[in-house]
Amino acid sequence: VEPVVTQAVDIAEPTTIAVFGDSVPAWLMRDAARAFERRDVVLINGANEACDGAVALPLGRDRRQNELLLPDDCLEWTQSYPVTLASYERPIEVGLLVIGQAPTVDRFVDDTWRHPCDADSWYLDDVRDRIEFLRSNDVKPVIALPARFGKRATFVLPDDLADRISCVRTSLVAIAFEQGVETVDLDGLLCVGDDCDGRRTRDGIHIDPEAAGEVLDELVDLTLAAR
C-alpha cells in the first residue's frame, strides 16, 4: 500500500475584532449575524443597546427636553470591556470603537446643559482612557467615526443635528491624530452619494436590517485595512 501524501496548506488564523459601542453596532451585528459567513475574521460583540459605556456619563436630554435614562444592564466600559476581552479563547487583536453617538445630545456638564459643540472634553478624556486600556492589553484600537445622521434622526435630536455630528466627528478625528489611532469612516458607508437615509430609512441613525449584512461586511473590510 502506497503511503498517502498530504500537502500542508498554510491557512491564516482569522483576525479577532471586538466591537464596542451602543445600539448602532449592537443592532448592526444582530441583524447581520444570520448571513455573516466570513472566515477571515471573528467578531466579538462588546456593544450594548443605548449604552455608550462612558464612565460617569453626564445626564442627557432629547429634543423635547426629556431626560435620557440608561438601561439597567448598562455598565461603564471599565467594567464591560475587560469582560469582552476575556470572553474569547484567543487574544483579541483589534478593538473597534463604534462610538460618538452619546455626545451628540445635550449633556449636563458642570451644572449646566451643554451643546456638543460647546463642551465635549468630558467625552474625549474618556475616549483617551479607552485607547490606553486597549493598548495596555495588546489590542489595537480603531475608531469608527460616526456618520452624518439621516433626516429622521430629528425624532430625538434637535434640528441642528448636522452641526452636532460635525463637531463630534471633528473632535474624534483630532483625538485619533493625537493618539496615533487609525480610523474608519461610517459616513462613507451610510451616506453613499450624500444620501444619509438610503440605508437608515427607519430612524436616520440605525442601519436597516436589510442593509446590515452588506454594511457589516464593508465595515470589516475597512477595519482589516486599518489594523
Can you lay out the helices and strands and say which pair or pack?
Elements: E1 15-21, H1 23-32, E2 41-47, E3 60-61, E4 67-68, H2 77-85, E5 94-98, E6 106-109, E7 112-114, H3 121-136, E8 140-145, H4 161-179, E9 182-185, H5 187-190, H6 209-226
Parallel strand pairs: 1-2, 1-5, 5-8, 8-9
Antiparallel strand pairs: 3-4, 3-6, 6-7
Helix pairs in contact: 1-6, 3-4
Structural commentary:
The protein is α/β, with parallel strands linked by helices and 227 residues long. Helices cover 33% and strands 18% of the residues. The protein contains six helices and nine strands, in the order E-H-E-E-E-H-E-E-E-H-E-H-E-H-H. The strands form two sheets. A five-stranded parallel sheet has the order 2-1-5-8-9, sandwiched between helices. It has a four-stranded antiparallel sheet with strand order 4-3-6-7, with no helix packed on it. Helix 1 crosses helix 6 and helix 3 runs parallel beside helix 4. The protein is globular, with a radius of gyration of 19 Å. Mean pLDDT is 94; it is low at 1-10.
